[in-house]
Design goal:
The chain is an all-alpha fold. Among the domains are: about 80 residues; about 110 residues, no CATH class; about 90 residues; about 160 residues, Lysozyme. It is about 70% helix and about 0% strand.
Length: about 750
């Protein structure tokens, strides 16, 4: 009795303690209290959550037997019956309804959906239930389904919006009432299999749409890659709304680049009918045919794309021809140009001129382009690569002053990138040759920063000083301060405070974490929206942060890709908070890499170079597989792995999807080729093999490894080496506060390293 009494007192005391924690969290919002409550709730329902996750993933298997479905249903019913306060109770009921559907007991599934739709307090569970009900009635009572859909459509916001409105469009079609479905087409991106219904809805309601709505439909079609329907509607759009020349030009380029030749021809003929678009007609016709040399001079975008298509012939597989490329580029400069097209067109010319060592022509082409773009001041530049090779050419021609000027431009563009690293080393070599102290040079840059005539000048020199001066923290703060003032971006502001603000709604945040751990990412995204996180970028960062806790790199890949789509991140990564930098460059395989490095007898590798390769090859996904059959974190071909294993002998049954096996073999292979060929060539060999190098060396006899890599015949390999070295530089600075990894004397005897 005494033991029972003590147990009851202990249980009551514990219950009181939990209640106090909840009160503290709800009313005072203290972060430690929030974290404790989150963790204690997760801990108390750990086994139920884990079982739900297993049952959820089991039901998603492609081949699942009747008995297995029945078992999953029974386990889920036991779970919700025994644990009345289960935090994923609605999700469990939705899964039970799904098992009933799979077992053929659709009326039982309908009852669950109906109960949730009427009684659930979870908006997402209501939407899931609504879609379940509509799918139930779809095949035998379309009118009832349509009535239910129209009654509840107001509650569908972001979560499963495309799925709901796609289903609604189908219901209108089955009900032969597409004239009333015009608004539906404005609310979702059609899949290819839904194109027929979508096209009928849009055509029947086209005249009712405003110009803005028509533009939205065209935008949706481009986003969903429905190019043939886009081409048809685009003709109607320009015929009826008569948009500006710029819009017609943009639509024309989209059609020529993405649609069938016949669609392009029809659109161009439609443009021809309107005298207002005569110049656009000429531009599009020329752009499509590539048959005229006198393309109109006043359309920068069309001209840029036109000449890119002509120039890229000299950029494929090392087929460099500097005379033809230079002639073509000079024609390009005779009319209007804009910077985005100029970047890619000029770099094609740069590679051609480097291949034939035409350094003076390279400088003249860059200066002419800068003049055409109005970028001929010390603090304005085209791109980091263009500026670097201009500075490099000035060194070859022994003009050290201009070399430094262009190297500075390259550094300011991306201060922690591949070209900035080489430019920085070369600047210090020049200063040494000129007997100018580093301190004197840095002080001259500080004076220019202080005398900056506007914020752009000051930003240029602050970015430059971040890379060159030892006081990096100071210049990082300056860059962020100026950038926030004139170009506010969430990446400069993100830190743990964002997450702490969201945590104030403790139960909702708890659900968000559980959704992430269960792989219910769409629900996690919607939960953040409901918590007031409306910025898509911040949502992506917060989801990525949680996914990394579970090492779920497969789902994280989507967010790494979306966050890396813009050039903004690459150009400004050095100035983000450390929290965000570590999120983008994590270290999840420390123990495996340490084991791999410990097995090497001679090596110049460190773990951050291995991480740089893992990030570039697989984005940390252990079961990654390429089209060529390369596998795992470091993307090894089975034949290569077997060859390496003969020497290492880590076991007969090696598994390239196992992180430890893959990293041991991949690190040994990487070490071998870098020991034999050096860092730059070694990385290029790792990606594309030795044959392309042999071809380029025989044909063009480049001066050094930098030139050799830049004129490598394959764009993928060129980009790969630059990406890996940029990854390496960022890892080294982020985790070791060092920013030097290799040095390369561009004037040394080429036989020494080729």
């Amino acid at each position: 009795m005494r033991e029972v009494f003590c147990f009851k007192r202990l249980k009551a005391a514990f219950g009181f303690f939990i209640a106090c924690v909840v009160i503290t969290v709800v009313f005072f919002g203290t972060e430690p209290g929030q974290d404790f409550f989150l963790e204690s709730t997760l801990q108390s329902q750990y086994y139920e959550i884990e079982e739900f996750k297993k049952l959820f993933s089991s039901l998603d298997r492609k081949k699942i037997k009747y008995k297995e479905i029945l078992y999953i249903k029974n386990r889920l019913e036991d779970l919700v019956e025994k644990r009345k306060d289960f935090i994923l109770k609605d999700e469990a009921y939705l899964l039970i309804a799904r098992t009933y559907q799979m077992l053929g007991e659709k009326s039982k599934a309908l009852k669950i959906y109906s109960d949730l739709l009427e009684n659930s307090s979870d908006a997402m569970a209501k939407v899931d239930s609504l879609i379940g009900i509509l799918n139930f009635y779809l095949h035998f009572d379309v009118k009832k389904a349509l009535k239910i859909a129209k009654k509840y459509e107001g509650m569908v916001k972001d979560y499963k919006k495309d799925e709901f409105f796609s289903l609604l469009a189908r219901l209108y079609s089955l009900n032969n009432n597409l004239k009333d479905a015009g608004y539906v087409a404005l609310n979702y991106l059609p899949l290819k299999e839904e194109k027929s219904i979508y096209e009928k809805i849009v055509k029947l309601n086209w005249k009712k749409y405003t110009q803005e709505e028509k533009e939205l439909i065209l935008s949706n079609l481009i986003s969903s890659k429905n190019f043939d329907l886009y081409a048809k509607l685009a003709k109607m759009y320009i015929r009826e709304t008569k948009p500006s020349e710029n819009i017609v030009e943009e639509i024309g380029i989209n059609i020529i680049n993405n649609c069938r030749s016949f669609d392009s021809y029809e659109f161009i003929e439609e443009v021809k009918k309107n005298p207002l678009y005569f110049s656009v007609y000429q531009e599009l016709k020329t752009y499509k045919s590539l048959s005229e040399s006198d393309i109109p001079t006043h359309s920068a975008k069309v001209r840029g794309e036109y000449y890119y298509r002509k120039l890229r012939v000299f950029n494929r597989k090392g087929r460099y021809d500097y005379k033809k490329a230079l002639l073509c580029y000079n024609d390009y400069l005779k009319g209007e140009i804009e910077i985005e097209c100029a970047k890619k067109n000029l770099m094609i010319l740069v590679r051609n001129l480097l291949a034939f060592k035409r350094y003076d022509d390279l400088i003249e082409a860059v200066k002419a382009t800068e003049k055409a773009l109005g970028l001929d001041s010390d603090s304005k530049f085209i791109a980091d690569d263009v500026s670097f090779w201009t500075g490099y050419s000035y060194i070859i021609l022994d003009d050290k002053t201009n070399a430094i000027k262009y190297f500075e431009k390259s550094i300011a563009a991306i201060p922690d990138g591949y070209y900035a690293f080489h430019a920085k080393n070369l600047i210090f070599e020049i200063l040494n040759e000129l007997s100018i102290s580093k301190d004197k040079y840095i002080n001259s840059l500080i004076e220019k920063y202080e005398r900056g005539i506007d914020h752009k000048d000051r930003l240029f020199y602050a970015r430059l000083l971040f890379s060159l001066d030892s006081n990096k923290d100071k210049w990082k703060k300056e860059v962020v301060s100026i950038s926030r003032r004139y170009n506010s971006n969430v990446f400069f502001d993100f830190n743990e405070d964002f997450i702490n603000r969201v945590k104030t709604d403790t139960l909702a945040y708890l659900k968000f974490k559980i959704y992430i751990s269960s792989g219910l990412i769409e629900k996690a995204e919607q939960m953040l929206t409901e918590l007031g996180v409306y910025n898509e970028t911040i949502r992506s960062i917060m989801i990525l942060k949680e996914l990394l806790k579970y090492k779920n790199f497969l789902l994280a890949r989507k967010y790494y890709d979306s966050l890396g789509e813009t050039s903004f991140i690459n150009e400004n990564f050095a100035f983000f908070s450390k929290d965000l930098q570590m999120l983008l460059y994590p270290t999840p395989y420390d123990s495996e890499i340490e084991v791999a490095l410990s097995r090497l007898k001679e090596t110049s590798l460190d773990k951050y170079l291995v991480y740089a390769v893992i990030r570039g090859e697989s984005m940390y996904i252990p079961k990654s597989r390429s089209r060529a059959g390369a596998r795992g974190l470091m993307q090894l071909l089975p034949a290569t792995a077997r060859l390496i294993n003969k020497r290492l002998d880590i076991g007969k049954n090696i598994d390239l999807y196992n992180p430890l096996d893959n990293i041991i073999l991949g690190t040994a292979y990487l070490n071998d080729i870098i020991q034999s060929h050096g860092l730059l060539k070694g990385l290029a060999f790792y990606n594309g093999g030795p044959k392309p190098f042999s071809k380029i060396m025989k044909k063009f006899d480049p001066e050094n490894e930098l030139e050799l890599l830049e004129i490598h015949p394959y764009r993928e390999t060129r980009g790969y080496v630059k990406k890996i070295l940029t990854n390496y530089l960022r890892y080294k600075y982020l985790y070791e506060k060092t920013d030097g990894i290799i040095t390369l004397d561009i004037k040394e005897n080429k036989k020494k390293f080729l």
